[in-house]
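Bumping with the actual sequence this time:
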Amino acid sequence: MLGSSSAAETVETRRHGPYWAPKTGSAKAFYPTADLRRAETMKAKFFYTGIRVKDLEASVKFYTTLLGMKVRGQNTVDAAKGTVVELICEGEGGNTLELNYYEKGSSFDTTYAVGDGLDHLAFAVKDLDAALAEAAKAGHPVVLKMQEPGSRYAYIQDPNGIWIELAQFG
């Protein structure tokens, strides 16, 4: 979370902050050119994806046992009353998936609802049919299958209801 200031404080800070021009009503004054140039040249490296989970143990088991990810670390975040588990895909350029679980009483322990904001997570597999058979055996049946020239893919759901794409290329 970005902080604890109220919406009114945030608006006030932004309006009079160092990068905002005086209120003139013009778009140029509202979006200073210097800021736009800096935003256009900023380079960032995508770091990881963090998802909220309902059942940390079942989620770790799903991603490690079924999808082959490895636990890189786990820690408690006292300020959020939560636990974070970092999972990695092995190999060069392996991505990191952060599983975030919040205890009862945490301000982040709100009603869990799978939403449309996170569409899916995708994993490449060598043999889609074998991967789907293994997923079904583990209690994660196919939700949807698709095929395009050069690739076949299917979706299953993780223990939290998040859609997981399994894709075979070639």
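The tokens above came from a reply further down the thread. The two ends are 41 Å apart (CA to CA).
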